[in-house]
Amino acid sequence: MYTKRLAVLLFSVCSPALVWTSSAAAQETLRYTIQSNDKAAGTEVDTFSADGRLESTFEFNDRGRGPKIAAHYVIGANGLPSRTDVTGNDYLKAPVDEHFSVEKGQAHWKSTSEDASAPEGGFYICNNGPGAELALLVAALVKAKDAPVKLLPAGEARLEKLTDTTIEDHGQKMHVTEYAVTGLSFEPQTVWLDDNLRLFGTPGKWFAMLREGWEGKNQELYDLQRKAEDARYGRLAKELAQHPKHAVAIEHVRVFDSEQAAMREDQTVVIEGERITQAGAAASIHIPKDAEHIDGADKTLLPGLFDMHAHAQPLDGFLNIASGVTTVRDMGNDIEELGRLQGQWQSGAAIGPRVWKSGFIDGPGPFQAPTGLYVTTEEEGRAAVNRYADLGYIQIKLYSSLKPELVPGIIKVAHHRGLRVSGHVPNGMIASQFVEEGADELQHINFIFLNFLASQVKDTRTPERFTAVGANAAKLDLDSKAVKEFIALLLDHHTTVDVTMATFEGMFTARPGSVSPDFAPILKRLPAQVQRGAYSGGLPVTSENDQLYKDSYGAMLRMTKRMYDAGIPILAGTDALAGLMLHRELELEIKAGIPPAKALQIATWNAAKLLKQEKELGSIAPGKLADLVLVEGNPAETISDIRRCRLVVKNGVLYKSDAVYTAVGIKPAD
Fold it and tell me: CA-CA distance, 253 to 298, in Å (whole number)?
């Protein structure tokens, strides 16, 4: 999926950039290559004029998705844009028509989601700007000489110079500097510029943007960028992690018995080191004399939550721990990057959850995933499975471009090595065939509906796997023989379904200018510039299919409940903004009709059992690892209380939720 993930990962690709300066030549054109997993996926071309004008075109292709933008900027003597015009389409192919201007002391901006004014004197951030924008902001910040720059519509930006280096390629040398801008997102957005404050690049593993001819320097710059990033995360880990020297007693607290999906009142839980040593009725617990006491009155203590569909990135560590998510199952990532991140999180060098890894296998081609291993033959498929198994992965995830004829062999090898198999249903197959070939699990509720749309969908590698569901899911008779037989097939094969309902809520029901329902409960807690994304809308709709798409999302909820009622194991996973969207996933399970206590059980005990970790995790009992979350209220009665995290414990290390949220610019829940 990656749709929400890309909104975060590509912020520094869709908003980094190039800058006009007064010393520029009469006209200068710079070209950039956008890479996905080291393969060209798009371009940016920026033309600067000496009169302060910048013309920019920007586009990339991500499995049929991706923006195509034409932008025009006029930069004033103060370094701030006085006019901006951006047109084209966004990542999900919705129209982009955004304009900003300054006239008679007033700044005015209008787009498909905004129409507002403010006194001039700020830097306007486009909703869908090309690469040129972040470098323009860096130049304005350099001109401000360490002072912050006001942002429009809200917030302020600050600049930090991180590191610099001289790179060499093809006999040429260039000095480049890494800058970090705060105030745009949850963490500093970094960009590499040359000495003329022109963009050089934004390196990365999944996606990168680099000046044409210098694409080979991606890894070198990324290593330097990662070093600075690691240092920052290490400092925060030391500041935010509390390592108790004595026992910790959480007293008179309501405890969620995840094995029975029930609440136990007036309990006390004692932690010593990395484990729970006592748990039971408060009156029966003998608290060590030197213990730290935590009042649990009117609060609920739950096992640490599991997100069973993650694509882990460094920022996610903060978002997950602050939200009470102490374990994630990574469903596709760069092998080296994930291994490094897992080591940092487990050692405490950075803040983050436990990680269980699923190996990603796809076929090469125009719609291939931006990460993973690519196979075209049975031998390559077997080698990929064995590589993942040898590295300690627990599962294989197959993807849309994999040849269907390779599926049976891959599943056979994976099962022989003791690995589960799941995935997107490869193009050319339907879900029932995938299950019959031996898949243990299905990713995403849309593939359930695509099972019944084979004659109407030409290529599930493309965004048609979303739009076809939007156009047809509401029309599917959930009481039909075909649906009943399919659910019976899942039950007979003991198939698990990773529905990721929060991923689709905004995609199908969000409309430009209105707050997306998945972000509505947390909107005011988010950084000012991040809030704007909640108004940008989802898939493009027309007056004719607007309600149909919303009704189709309702059908997704009803299908989830049908499967749950039939006894199909449902997983709680996000494939979206880490931590916060797991809370939304649980709220959506309740909206679908799953009882709150059962939803909590799905995100704790059931997940631990699927990962075969129930002896160590997933419930609160003596001897188990101390992965816990303390929340205000009772989420078994009001599921949204799960958002009111106060204390999170991972492996016996304590984190104050509000402090971790604050570190990434998020306000704590009331």
Answer: 7
Rg of the Cα atoms in the chain:
25
Phi-psi region of 446 (alpha: psi -120 to 50; beta: other; left: phi over 0): alpha
Nearest Cα to Cα of residue 87 among 99, 97, 101 = 97
pLDDT digits (tens, 9 = 90+) for 235-285: 999 999 999 999 999 999 999 999 999 999 999 999 999 999 999 999 999
Residue 318 near residue 653 (C-beta atoms within 8 A): no
The beta-strand segments (E) located in 363-508 are: 373-374, 395-398, 420-423, 441-443, 496-498
* Tokens representing residue 216 in the block: 């080979």
CB-based contacts of 456: which residues, under 8 Å, 6+ apart?
Answer: 468, 472
Work out whether the CA dihedral 393, 601, 581, 575 comes out positive or negative. positive
Using CA atoms, how far apart are residues 396 and 356, in angstroms rounded to an integer?
A: 12
**Strand locations in 245-372, DSSP E?**
248-257, 262-272, 275-281, 292-295, 299-303, 305-310, 325-330, 354-362
pLDDT-flagged residues of the chain (< 70): 1-25
Tokens of 462: 């493309």
Distance of alpha carbon 148 from alpha carbon 581, whole angstroms = 31
The pLDDT, as a whole number, for residue 67 is 94
Query: Which tokens sit at 62?
Result: 């991500």
543 by Cβ neighbours in 10 Å (0-12 / 13-18 / 19+) ranks as exposed
Residue of 14, 413, 316 whose CA lies nearest to 191: 14
In sequence order, the β-bridge partners of residue 110 are: 99, 115
- Measured between alpha carbons, how far is 487 from 482 in angstroms, rounded to an integer? 9
Q: What is the dihedral of CA 574, 576, 579, 581, to 10 degrees?
A: -70
Nearest one of 284, 279, 285, 282 to 297, comparing CA atoms: 282
Residue 132: its pLDDT value, please? 80
Block residue for tokens 């192919």:
93
Measured over the CA atoms of residue 423, residue 427, residue 429 and residue 431, the dihedral's sign is positive
Helix/strand/coil for 448? helix
Q: How far apart, in whole angstroms, are the C-alpha atoms of residue 232 and residue 180?
A: 12
Among the listed residues 180, 221, 226, 227, the one whose alpha carbon sits nearest the alpha carbon of residue 201: 221
Q: What is the pLDDT of residue 23?
A: 41
C-alpha 256/C-alpha 328 separation (Å) is 20
User: Shortest CA distance to 382 belongs to which of 407, 356, 403?
Assistant: 407
Give the other-Cβ count within 10 Å of 234's Cβ: 15
CA angle 351, 355, 356 (to 5 degrees): 180
CA distance 254 to 267: 6
36/398 Cα distance (integer angstroms): 19
Q: Helix H segments across 454-545?
A: 464-472, 481-492, 501-509, 528-533
The Cα 512–Cα 566 span in angstroms is 37
d(CA 358, CA 310): 10
Collapsing DSSP to helix, strand or coil, 373 comes out as strand
